Amino acid sequence: MKLLMIVVDSQCREELEVLFKRVGVLGYTEIPEVHGVGETGIRMGSGAFPATSSLFFTVVDAEKVHELKETLNIFCGSEERHFKMIQWGVEEVV
User: Fold this and answer.
1) N or C: fewer beta carbons within 10 Å in the chain?
2) CB–CB of 7/87 below 8 Å?
3) What's the pLDDT tens digit per position in 36-73?
């Protein structure tokens, strides 16, 4: 199993929820409107830097990671939106 942390443009958070359903992700946690600075720029939710990101956590079977990544690449690439997906191995969920 893998723990995924996915950071997406806040404007496509609802689409990510639809993608989760499409690939069979049954549960997730969302932290909406997170702020930060990275390779896509400054995201502070302010007048000067209005963009924000949304942060999602989910635990999925390792086999689902590739499908989810490919689906996100297709969706975000076609819409010129950005995402990052970080994964960690999970030994056990209690």
Assistant:
1) C
2) no
3) 998 878 899 899 999 899 999 999 999 889 988 888 88
Mean pLDDT of the chain: 88
From the number of C-beta atoms within 10 Å of its C-beta (0-12, 13-18, 19+), residue 16 rates as buried
Mean pLDDT calculated for residue range 3-11: 90
Q: Which two tokens stand for residue 14?
A: 């609802």
Please enumerate in sequence order all residues whose Cβ is within 8 A of that of 30, keeping only pairs 6 or more positions apart, or say none.
Answer: 13, 54, 55, 56
| Nearest CA among 24, 84, 31 for reference residue 57 | 31
Q: Domains of the chain, with CATH numbers?
A: 2-89 (3.30.70.120)
